[in-house]
Amino acid sequence: MTSKDTAAADLHDKLTDKVLSAHLTTLGLTGRGGAPVSPSTLRRYLPVFRIYAVWNEHLEGHGVAPDEFVLAKLLAERGIVGQCNAVYTPGKLAPFVEDFPRRRAALAADQMLSDA
Protein backbone atom coordinates (compact mmCIF):
# COMPACT_ATOMS: atom_id res chain seq x y z
CA MET A 1 0.00 0.00 0.00
CA THR A 2 1.42 3.39 -0.97
CA SER A 3 1.46 6.41 1.32
CA LYS A 4 -1.35 7.89 -0.81
CA ASP A 5 -3.42 4.73 -0.25
CA THR A 6 -2.69 4.85 3.47
CA ALA A 7 -3.76 8.50 3.67
CA ALA A 8 -6.97 7.73 1.79
CA ALA A 9 -7.67 4.76 4.06
CA ASP A 10 -7.12 6.93 7.14
CA LEU A 11 -9.53 9.54 5.77
CA HIS A 12 -12.19 6.92 5.14
CA ASP A 13 -11.70 5.33 8.56
CA LYS A 14 -11.85 8.64 10.44
CA LEU A 15 -14.39 10.53 8.37
CA THR A 16 -17.08 12.14 10.50
CA ASP A 17 -20.46 13.57 9.62
CA LYS A 18 -19.21 17.12 10.27
CA VAL A 19 -16.11 16.68 8.09
CA LEU A 20 -18.21 15.22 5.29
CA SER A 21 -20.71 18.09 5.52
CA ALA A 22 -17.90 20.65 5.22
CA HIS A 23 -16.31 18.74 2.33
CA LEU A 24 -19.58 18.56 0.42
CA THR A 25 -20.07 22.29 0.91
CA THR A 26 -16.64 22.98 -0.64
CA LEU A 27 -17.77 20.90 -3.62
CA GLY A 28 -20.90 23.04 -3.94
CA LEU A 29 -23.24 20.34 -2.65
CA THR A 30 -25.55 21.97 -0.13
CA GLY A 31 -28.83 21.36 1.58
CA ARG A 32 -31.98 23.40 1.55
CA GLY A 33 -31.51 27.10 0.95
CA GLY A 34 -27.81 26.67 0.19
CA ALA A 35 -26.93 25.77 3.77
CA PRO A 36 -24.45 22.94 4.42
CA VAL A 37 -25.99 19.47 4.45
CA SER A 38 -26.84 18.67 8.05
CA PRO A 39 -24.31 16.30 9.66
CA SER A 40 -27.22 14.37 11.19
CA THR A 41 -28.54 13.72 7.67
CA LEU A 42 -25.18 12.30 6.58
CA ARG A 43 -24.56 10.19 9.66
CA ARG A 44 -26.53 7.19 8.41
CA TYR A 45 -24.42 6.95 5.25
CA LEU A 46 -21.00 6.82 6.91
CA PRO A 47 -20.96 3.11 7.79
CA VAL A 48 -21.76 2.08 4.21
CA PHE A 49 -19.24 4.61 2.91
CA ARG A 50 -16.50 3.07 5.05
CA ILE A 51 -17.40 -0.44 3.94
CA TYR A 52 -17.45 0.60 0.28
CA ALA A 53 -14.12 2.42 0.61
CA VAL A 54 -12.42 -0.71 1.96
CA TRP A 55 -14.09 -2.89 -0.70
CA ASN A 56 -13.04 -0.55 -3.50
CA GLU A 57 -9.49 -0.16 -2.17
CA HIS A 58 -9.08 -3.95 -2.18
CA LEU A 59 -10.49 -4.19 -5.69
CA GLU A 60 -8.10 -1.54 -7.01
CA GLY A 61 -5.12 -2.98 -5.16
CA HIS A 62 -5.67 -6.64 -5.99
CA GLY A 63 -7.66 -6.56 -9.22
CA VAL A 64 -10.45 -8.62 -7.71
CA ALA A 65 -13.34 -7.60 -5.48
CA PRO A 66 -13.30 -9.10 -2.01
CA ASP A 67 -16.11 -11.43 -1.08
CA GLU A 68 -18.01 -10.87 2.15
CA PHE A 69 -15.62 -13.09 4.13
CA VAL A 70 -12.50 -11.21 3.01
CA LEU A 71 -14.28 -7.89 3.49
CA ALA A 72 -15.28 -8.83 7.06
CA LYS A 73 -11.64 -9.61 7.80
CA LEU A 74 -10.41 -6.35 6.25
CA LEU A 75 -12.92 -4.30 8.24
CA ALA A 76 -12.00 -6.08 11.48
CA GLU A 77 -8.29 -5.48 10.84
CA ARG A 78 -9.02 -1.75 10.55
CA GLY A 79 -11.28 -1.68 13.56
CA ILE A 80 -14.28 -0.65 11.48
CA VAL A 81 -17.37 -1.81 13.32
CA GLY A 82 -21.10 -1.31 13.12
CA GLN A 83 -23.59 0.00 15.63
CA CYS A 84 -22.80 -0.70 19.27
CA ASN A 85 -19.28 -1.73 18.19
CA ALA A 86 -20.61 -4.91 16.59
CA VAL A 87 -18.20 -6.63 14.21
CA TYR A 88 -19.44 -6.86 10.63
CA THR A 89 -20.25 -10.46 9.74
CA PRO A 90 -20.17 -11.97 6.24
CA GLY A 91 -23.95 -12.32 6.41
CA LYS A 92 -24.38 -8.61 7.14
CA LEU A 93 -21.93 -7.68 4.36
CA ALA A 94 -23.36 -9.94 1.62
CA PRO A 95 -25.98 -7.41 0.38
CA PHE A 96 -23.34 -4.68 0.19
CA VAL A 97 -20.89 -6.89 -1.69
CA GLU A 98 -23.67 -7.73 -4.14
CA ASP A 99 -24.49 -4.03 -4.72
CA PHE A 100 -21.02 -2.48 -4.77
CA PRO A 101 -20.17 -3.37 -8.41
CA ARG A 102 -23.29 -1.46 -9.50
CA ARG A 103 -22.33 1.48 -7.31
CA ARG A 104 -18.77 1.47 -8.65
CA ALA A 105 -20.04 1.45 -12.25
CA ALA A 106 -22.40 4.34 -11.52
CA LEU A 107 -19.60 6.35 -9.93
CA ALA A 108 -17.29 5.63 -12.87
CA ALA A 109 -19.96 6.73 -15.35
CA ASP A 110 -20.56 9.91 -13.38
CA GLN A 111 -16.82 10.62 -13.30
CA MET A 112 -16.58 10.12 -17.07
CA LEU A 113 -19.40 12.63 -17.61
CA SER A 114 -17.80 15.20 -15.35
CA ASP A 115 -14.42 14.76 -17.08
CA ALA A 116 -15.94 15.32 -20.53
Q: What are the main properties of this structure?
A:
single chain, about 120 residues, mainly alpha, globular, disordered N terminus
- Reading the helices and strands in chain order gives HHHHHH
Radius of gyration: 15 Å
- Based on secondary structure, the structural category is mainly alpha
Continuous helix count: 6
How much helix is in the residues?
55-70%
Give the strand tally: 0
Q: Characterize the biggest β-sheet.
A: none
Ends apart, CA distance between termini: 30 Å
Strand content: under 5%
Mean pLDDT: 86
Global shape: globular
Question: Low-confidence parts lasting 5 or more residues at pLDDT below 50?
Answer: 1-8
Question: How would you describe what is shown here?
Answer:
With 116 residues, the protein is an all-alpha fold. 69% of the residues lie in helices and 0% in strands. It has helices spanning 3-14, 17-26, 39-42, 46-62, 68-78, 90-115. Helix 1 (3-14) runs antiparallel to helix 4 (46-62) and helix 4 packs across helix 6 (90-115). 11% of the residues are buried. It has 6 helices and no strands.
Describe the secondary-structure layout:
Elements: H1 3-14, H2 17-26, H3 39-42, H4 46-62, H5 68-78, H6 90-115
